């Protein structure tokens, strides 16, 4: 909790106000459990409440325990998971952030509530798993299994888009490549929901996705460097996540994560481009 400055703070606490650096090592009492953490870990998400609390400007207003350490009346198990995530985030590459902490289902809402209070929801709130159906297609593709699958009927480029539109937060589509003919080609992507795709929708300026033969598309342009991406194969299951606030789309498959920065605005739909007769993609 936050309160007005105390006039009877210990001397060492008063001195902390005068000079703070990112390398400061702080001892914090969290719900009765003490931990030591660097200031730079607490402040690395600049616009968060947690960063403001430990920026050095407001620290004197935080509650203190009998030893003069900052006291946070939070669930220590939750807070330690948050701190461990922030520690990992500090040393992780921008395109490979750490995994979101695993929380028991019955405690997820309480954990997310603390995360939102601290202003860390863009980093730590689990994305919404989107149950979706295909609803829009180009000539040559048929929708099957009540919208769960799309099938390419003949040779030639065609596209299909899912129904749901995502304009804020995070969302995840799970999908599987059910059929991919030899030397066939498929692209899976997010695309602006207001776009009017052509048969070559991979080239749409609001298309961000991954295709066979190591192809990666950003704003409809083929990228020479694929960051290890090699393409799809028959039977492959994938997750595609769009992060509207973080401006990034992520593909997860076979234990690997691939990331593309979003350089244009949504709202977004899940989208596929198919080329070969018999190709099938299914939303799970």
Describe this structure in words.
The chain is an alpha+beta fold and 284 residues long. Helices cover 16% and strands 32% of the residues. The protein has helices at 11-16, 39-42, 49-53, 76-91, 108-117, 121-124, and strands spanning 25-30, 33-38, 70-72, 128-129, 134-137, 141-144, 149-152, 158-162, 170-179, 186-192, 207-211, 215-218, 221-222, 237-243, 248-253, 256-261, 268-274, 280-283. The longest helix has 16 residues, at 76-91. The two termini are 43 Å apart.
Portion in strands: 25-35%
Shape: elongated
The Rg value, from CA coordinates, equals 24 Å
SSE sequence, one letter per element: HEEHHEHHHEEEEEEEEEEEEEEE
Helical stretch tally: 6
Number of strands: 18
Q: What would the average pLDDT be, to the nearest integer?
A: 88
Q: Fraction of residues in helices?
A: 10-25%
Largest sheet: number of strands, sense, barrel closure: 8 strands, mixed
Unreliable runs: 1-17
